[in-house]
UniProtKB/TrEMBL annotation:
<dbReference type="InterPro" id="IPR036621">
    <property type="entry name" value="Anticodon-bd_dom_sf"/>
</dbReference>
<dbReference type="InterPro" id="IPR045864">
    <property type="entry name" value="aa-tRNA-synth_II/BPL/LPL"/>
</dbReference>
<dbReference type="InterPro" id="IPR041715">
    <property type="entry name" value="HisRS-like_core"/>
</dbReference>
<keyword id="KW-0436">Ligase</keyword>
<keyword id="KW-0067">ATP-binding</keyword>
<dbReference type="GO" id="GO:0006427">
    <property type="term" value="P:histidyl-tRNA aminoacylation"/>
</dbReference>
<feature type="binding site">
    <location>
        <position position="130"/>
    </location>
    <ligand>
        <name>L-histidine</name>
    </ligand>
</feature>
<feature type="binding site">
    <location>
        <begin position="261"/>
        <end position="262"/>
    </location>
    <ligand>
        <name>L-histidine</name>
    </ligand>
</feature>
<dbReference type="InterPro" id="IPR033656">
    <property type="entry name" value="HisRS_anticodon"/>
</dbReference>
<keyword id="KW-0547">Nucleotide-binding</keyword>
<dbReference type="InterPro" id="IPR004516">
    <property type="entry name" value="HisRS/HisZ"/>
</dbReference>
<keyword id="KW-0030">Aminoacyl-tRNA synthetase</keyword>
<dbReference type="InterPro" id="IPR015807">
    <property type="entry name" value="His-tRNA-ligase"/>
</dbReference>
<dbReference type="GO" id="GO:0005524">
    <property type="term" value="F:ATP binding"/>
</dbReference>
<feature type="binding site">
    <location>
        <position position="126"/>
    </location>
    <ligand>
        <name>L-histidine</name>
    </ligand>
</feature>
<comment type="subunit">
    <text>Homodimer.</text>
</comment>
<dbReference type="GO" id="GO:0004821">
    <property type="term" value="F:histidine-tRNA ligase activity"/>
</dbReference>
Length: 424
């Protein structure tokens, strides 16, 4: 027998036993976004490679080694999106959306050629949220409050907020000099990655996941001590709002984002429940990106939630939303009953559009059909056999009690609706 073909490493199937959880989480996310006035934007998964090089930055991990890039049949270099911000900005510029304030979100797969491990995959999913045309710290606070509300709605507790300010471009450049001096005078303690970053992107050394780099990074000069006055004021106002709103946070001076386009506010929601991959949500302000991509100067801020990590965290905390079987499983034995059962099911669906009904297909004995009904988790099993057919009756078994009764076909819809089937 030929060997079966397996999925690409790091690209996972999300199987039917898990999709109800994904759907429930997605529904909660959408409800909250809608309640804050954020609108969905649907973006292509493929973009021109140039877009990511210009936005994310040539010397980031993503562009240096993680992108899925290929030439298409015309010889154009295309890339599977590693994140959504660049494409969202591209779309907003293309459609003149920066003329007005925008609150936007999107959800979908992202692709990065990383080493697969728990919480780190090559295809993963993000909810991305972006706001354009707001320069003050009020929107920064709104976004953080929105995420806090989300965790509350999902019942998440083991998650903490870290914030930092990356300041203006000039402040970052000044700081960069100090940082390079510091690392140069401790060069023997730098790991290989950090040696390389010292030349290309020294701020990223602070983001190192290597425990051996921890103490060196902890003693490094802090960006927050080099902030320009405007960024310092912006940050102070954000902190004040968060305090007034009762949102606990920690100022983490080593918090930098993996992408180059951030300035001023950055934040992450982290947990210690997921091992090394503890960042569930990450975001910040990226005003500079818009001109970098050829647009008129504007303000922008956004965040992304890693959905695999969010769902793992819900699983770890035992707070995955409940899922339920269908309301009804319809069993039909014999040819005539099988034919009739499909019609009966359609008539019930006409009358009760929210009814969740599985109509047995594929025949088989009463016993085997009942087994399926049981396994489906249905609240009621409806039974149509020869005898019921002859009288236009149907057997109704309430699965939780085992109680059985017989109803006329014409009474069925009324019975189900007055028994309050789950109309989800
Ligand atoms: P990390 O430091 O964990 O590599 P990052 O800084 O590269 O994260 P972002 O680009 O900010 O991550 O993406 C936002 C979120 O998307 C992350 O906080 C995480 O929850 C999720 N994420 C990023 N990369 C992956 C991945 N390879 N697999 C699963 N989730 C991911
Ligand atoms: Mg990364």
């Amino acid at each position: 027998m030929a060997e079966i073909i397996r999925s690409v490493r790091g690209m996972n199937d999300i199987l039917p036993e898990m999709t109800p959880y994904w759907q429930a989480v997605e529904t909660s996310l959408k409800q909250i976004l809608d309640s804050y006035g954020y609108q969905e934007i649907r973006l292509p998964i493929l973009e021109k490679t140039e877009l990511f090089k210009r936005s994310i930055g040539e010397v980031t991990d993503i562009v240096e080694k993680e992108m899925y890039t290929f030439d298409d049949r015309n010889g154009d270099s295309l890339t599977l999106r590693p994140e959504g911000t660049a494409g969202c900005v591209r779309a907003a510029m293309e459609h003149g959306m920066f003329n007005q304030q925008q609150r936007l979100w999107y959800m979908g797969p992202m692709f990065r050629h990383e080493r697969p491990q728990k919480g780190r995959y090559r295809q993963f999913h993000q909810l991305g949220v972006e706001a354009y045309g707001f320069s003050g710290p009020d929107i920064d606070a709104e976004m953080i409050l929105l995420t806090a509300r989300l965790w509350k709605k999902l019942g998440l507790k083991d998650i903490t907020l870290q914030i930092n300010s990356l300041g203006s471009t000039e402040a970052r450049l000044n700081y960069r000099e100090k940082l390079v001096e510091y690392y140069q005078s401790n060069q023997e303690q730098l790991d290989e990655d950090s040696q390389r970053r010292l030349l290309t992107n020294p701020l990223r050394i602070l983001d190192s996941k290597n425990p051996d780099m921890q103490s060196l990074n902890e003693a490094a000069p802090k960006l927050i001590d080099y902030l320009d006055a405007e960024s310092a004021e912006h940050f102070e106002q954000l902190c004040a709002t968060l305090r007034e709103a009762g949102i606990a946070f920690e100022i983490n001076p080593r918090l930098v984002r993996g992408l180059d386009y951030y300035g001023k506010t950055v934040f992450e929601w982290v947990t210690d429940q997921l091992g090394a991959q503890g960042t569930v949500c990450a975001g910040g302000r990226y005003d500079g990106l818009i001109t970098q991509l050829g647009g008129k100067a504007s303000s922008a801020i956004g965040f992304a939630i890693g959905l695999e990590r969010l769902i793992s965290l819900l699983e770890a905390g035992g707070t995955l939303p409940e899922t339920k079987g269908p309301d009804v499983y319809l069993v039909a034995v014999g040819e005539a009953a099988a034919a009739q059962s499909l019609l009966l099911a359609e008539s019930l669906r006409d009358q009760l559009p929210d009814l969740r009904l599985i109509s047995h297909c594929g025949g088989g004995s009463f016993k085997s059909q009942f087994k399926r009904a049981d396994r489906s988790g249905a609240r009621w099993t409806l039974i149509l056999g020869e005898e019921e057919m002859s009288q236009q009756h149907i057997g109704v078994k309430t699965m939780s009690t085992g109680e059985q009764q017989t109803l006329a076909w014409s009474e069925l819809a009324n019975f189900l609706s007055t028994s309050h089937f789950d109309n989800r």
